[in-house]
Amino acid sequence: MGEENTAVTLKTILIGNSGVGKSSVMNRYVDNRFTNMYRATIGTDFFSKAVRINGNTVTLQIWDTAGTERFQSLGTPLYRGSHCCMLVFDVTSSTSFSALEMWRKEFLVQGEPQDPENFPFVVLGNKTDLGNREVGLDSLADFLPFVHLPVSRRKAMQWCEEIGAEYFEGSAKEDLDMEKPFLKATELGLQQYKKHTLENTGHFQITCEQPRETRNTCEC
């Protein structure tokens, strides 16, 4: 079979509770901008960005989702076709962290990835600018999961090790370490693409075409 140039688009979806900063994380990474004016995502929103990975350029399509129950019915069509999933929580809120397991399971059920046990997840703890987190509060948060207590890095990393996810933390507001999780999501997503999307083609080549940045907002 002859070689074929393939312009690769990788789909990464951001999920997590409302208010954890998913839109801020996406806007900071794509446009390097931040606003203190909170606006809940209505339905879905997405940006595309050209990303250099392993010497090649791919298009990373980042989907931002509403973290409220009335929009969870969008999950099935939205989750499908994802190459990586980024679980976002607020490091000052144990509630948002505890909810990640629910979001992860929902994604695996509704997204129906080909190999759910090995599907790549990236976990991002946002809002590290809001102060220090006391490690000693971890046990208290376990008994009071609905109280807004901080989540230590140790606890977050321990959970990520249990589920086989990559862990990052930073601040969209202060532009701290916002690029690293997306680069990792691109790397893992590309592995998924090569493993599943092209598993029957027998070859793989990426064109280095610079895609135009696009945006789409669905206000359902």
Radius of gyration: 17 Å
User: So what's the CATH class?
Assistant: Alpha Beta
Number of helices: 7
Helix and strand run:
EHEEHEHHEHHEHE
Oligomer: single chain
Show unreliable segments: 203-214, 216-220
Shape designation: globular
Total count of strands:
7
Proportion of strand residues: 15-25%
Q: What number is the mean pLDDT?
A: 80
Q: In which order are the strands of the major sheet placed?
A: 6-5-4-1-3-2-7
CATH topology: Rossmann fold
CATH superfamily: P-loop containing nucleotide triphosphate hydrolases
Q: Work out the count of structural domains.
A: 1
Class by alpha and beta content: alpha/beta
Q: Specify the biggest β-sheet.
A: 7 strands, mixed
CATH architecture, please? 3-Layer(aba) Sandwich
Chain-wise SSE layout:
Layout (H helix, E strand, L loop, with lengths): L8 E7 L6 H10 L12 E10 L2 E10 L9 H5 L4 E7 L3 H5 L1 H12 L9 E6 L11 H6 L9 H11 L2 E4 L9 H19 L17 E4 L2
Parallel strand pairs: 1-3, 1-4, 4-5, 5-6
Antiparallel strand pairs: 2-3, 2-7
